[in-house]
Amino acid sequence: MTSNLQWLSLMAIPKIQLFLTAKKSVNGLAYQQLEIEILTPDRVINPADLIGLELPSGVDTSNGVVISGRAPIWLYAYFVNELHPTKWVACYDPRISGGVVVATHSNQVTIGQIITESQSSEVQLCPALMIVGPPNSGKSVLSHALFKTLLQENSHVYLQRANWDGEGNWTIELGDEEQAEIMKVSNKGELTQGFFPYHAQAILELRRQKSLVIVDIGGMVQPEKQPILEACSHYLIVSSNSDEVIKWHEFCRDRVNLSTVAVIHSTLETCEEVNQSQFYLEMTCGAWLMGQSRAVPDELLKRVRSLLLER
User: Fold this and answer.
1) How far is CA 260 from the centre of its chain?
2) Residue 248 in contact with residue 265, Cβ under 8 Å?
3) Bridge partners of 20?
4) Which of 116, 129, 172, 238 has the fewest C-beta atoms lying within 10 Å of its C-beta?
5) Phi, psi values for residue 256, rounded to 5°
6) What residues in the chain have per-residue pLDDT under 70?
């Protein structure tokens, strides 16, 4: 009986909170914004959480709605369907600072149109921290660990994967390294002329809205990445080869004067040792391996946490 009561108590705790706000676009178009906030500490929900989930009262069907917030694709799909009676529905993409119209019954908007909110004042840019270093050093695993840890404290942290290797949070969270590698290869893209300029603009848009943007740019020093360098403010080196560190300092610090946060000498051994901390943090620690959970060292977390901009 006690266990059943505990289960019912957990079921009664809301995991998803919804806010409805009146907005106006830069073109003067009135609309409503449906903001999704996931309340669990790890920001994870399950499909069963859809049961009994309802729109907030007060949705005006004579206007359009922009859905916003960090949430799974299937939750967005659910709300697009639930909002069918409204004039139009858009899904907010922070990388373009606007809602993309995905359904409409009105000539007010067209499919694919971007609804941008009118801004009343200049917005301060938050820091953007590049995670750099040679291949197979644990950059993706460390950046994901930083992101997940900071996200529990601040919902305005964003991880931008500015690489075409097919890797992302989903490959790390899959839990099956072999399957993740297969899916990574099948989703791998290629470098195009517009790839890095696109991501550079996305980073700038994110910096206008978030408290911290973490950027994974892959393991190669390439002149094509110049737009990314110019869009960021700080960098963190993760390297399993000490000879590669100076090359990344030259690329990030000397080329565009980015601020050094830390140098992590990654190792396959389980260790955590501070080498120096006067000008920037330098540590030897590991192992940063796919499928193996490892906490972010306190000293590193402290340095990165100090970058957060209050929103």
Assistant:
1) 21
2) no
3) 34
4) 116
5) -130, 10
6) 1-13, 120-121, 166-168, 170-171, 174-176, 180, 184
Tokens matching residue 153: 């404290």
Q: How far apart are CA 254 and CA 276, in angstroms?
A: 21
pLDDT at 175: 66
Residue 228 to residues 135, 151, 197, 214, 290, Cα–Cα distance (Å): 18, 23, 7, 12, 26
The total of other beta-carbon atoms located within 10 Å of residue 253's CB is 15
The H helix count followed by the E strand count for the chain is: 10, 13
Instruction: For residue 70, report the phi and psi dihedrals to the nearest 5 degrees.
Output: -80, 115
Task: Tell me how far apart the alpha carbons of residues 217 and 225 are, in angstroms, rounded to a whole number.
Answer: 8
**CB-CB contact of 232 with 200 (8 Å):** no
Count Cβ atoms below 10 Å from residue 15 Cβ, excluding itself: 17
CB 297 within 8 A of CB 279: no
Assess contact for 78 and 50: CB atoms under 8 A: yes
Q: Which amino acid is at 37?
A: E
Q: In what order do the strands lie in the sheet with 30-38?
A: 16-24, 30-38, 64-68, 88-93, 98-104, 114-115
Best CA proximity match to 275, nearest among 286, 264, 259:
264
Listed residue (183, 256, 182) closest to 217, CA to CA: 256
CA-only gyration radius of the chain, Å: 21
pLDDT by residue (tens digit) across 183-228? Answer: 767 777 777 899 999 999 999 999 999 999 999 998 999 999 999 9
CA torsion 93→96→99→104, rounded to 10°? -110
pLDDT in tens, 27-61: 999 999 999 999 988 888 999 999 999 999 999 99
Encoding tokens for residue 219? 């393991």
Q: Which helix (H) or strand (E) holds 284?
A: strand 281-286
